[in-house]
């Protein structure tokens, strides 16, 4: 489905996933991996964050999963109204449990302190379809999620 306008009452997501607006270090969609120089599809965004910062629910919903997952690390998945799902990954800690009801702005966990990079939050928005949960552009749901230009991204990451 087409993502709703966030000013519309139909968008179940109303809150930014961090306490303050962050730079987008990797954006959603197709891009060239700087390490392999191959095209890769990013199903979400990497938001620069402070270590230990709260990770917040972007909308009301039910926690579908809260725990360790092979590719996502510490992961919280929330199912929202209208077949929308959000995923918050690479967390330092998880503060919710599967089955728990949450509201926009509720604390889900904290940002980790990775050994090999700056602290960040991996955030995805997905929509339910006959094919399963399909990745959507998070910026279409939460306008404050904006990619930085490629030159600035290299400076932020130290490339």
Layout: helices, strands, pairs:
Elements: E1 24-26, E2 29-32, E3 39-42, E4 45-48, E5 54-56, E6 61-69, E7 73-80, E8 84-89, E9 91-94, E10 101-102, E11 107-111, E12 120-129, E13 132-136, H1 138-141, H2 150-157
Antiparallel strand pairs: 1-4, 2-3, 4-12, 5-11, 6-7, 6-10, 7-8, 8-12, 9-11, 12-13
Please tell me about this protein's structure:
The N terminus and C terminus are likely disordered. With 159 residues, the chain is mostly beta strands. Helix content is 8%, strand content 42%. The protein has one domain: Glucose Permease (Domain IIA). It contains 2 helices and 13 strands.
Number of domains: 1
Alpha-carbon distance between the termini? 36 Å
**Secondary-structure element order, N to C:** EEEEEEEEEEEEEHH
Assign the CATH superfamily: Glucose Permease (Domain IIA)
Total DSSP helices: 2
Helix content estimate: under 10%
Evaluate the radius of gyration: 15 Å
Q: Which second-level CATH architecture applies? A: Distorted Sandwich
User: Given the C-alpha coordinates, what overall shape results?
Assistant: globular
Tell me the CATH topology: Glucose Permease (Domain IIA)
How much of the sequence is in beta strands? 35-45%
Uncertain runs: 1-8, 150-159
Largest sheet: 8 strands, antiparallel
Class computed from helices, strands and strand pairing: mainly beta
Overall pLDDT metric? 87
Q: In the CATH hierarchy, what is the class?
A: Mainly Beta
Give a count of the beta strands, DSSP E runs of length 2 or more.
13
